[in-house]
Amino acid sequence: MGVSVTTSEQGPVPVVHVQGDVDVTSAPSMREAIDALILAGHRRMVLDLTDVSFIDSTGLGVVVGRLKGLRRSAGVLTVAASHERVLRVLGITGLDTVLDVAPDVDAAIAAAAQTAQ
Question: Where's the STAS domain (predicted)?
Fold first, then answer.
């Protein structure tokens, strides 16, 4: 399955929406979308993975790399994820303790906005 990556403004922070499987071939699209927001000056954003049912180590590497970059500039990356397989991968890797993970986009936006203050 391919991946679709779009961005939107939903409230106080931009959202990167990802649909499909995030793997070695599709992870660069996600990275490019996040990087474009960072280059545009955004330091707080939401990564919407609610329509992702699979993410491999390459996709996780993109998330971790962008999180580190944002944190260096006092930024925030909040992840919205609800699929059991994605949540399980985040838990097994321990990323659920490093990332702010919310069950849906609205909760992720609220968390990112609150963290921003």
Answer: 3-112
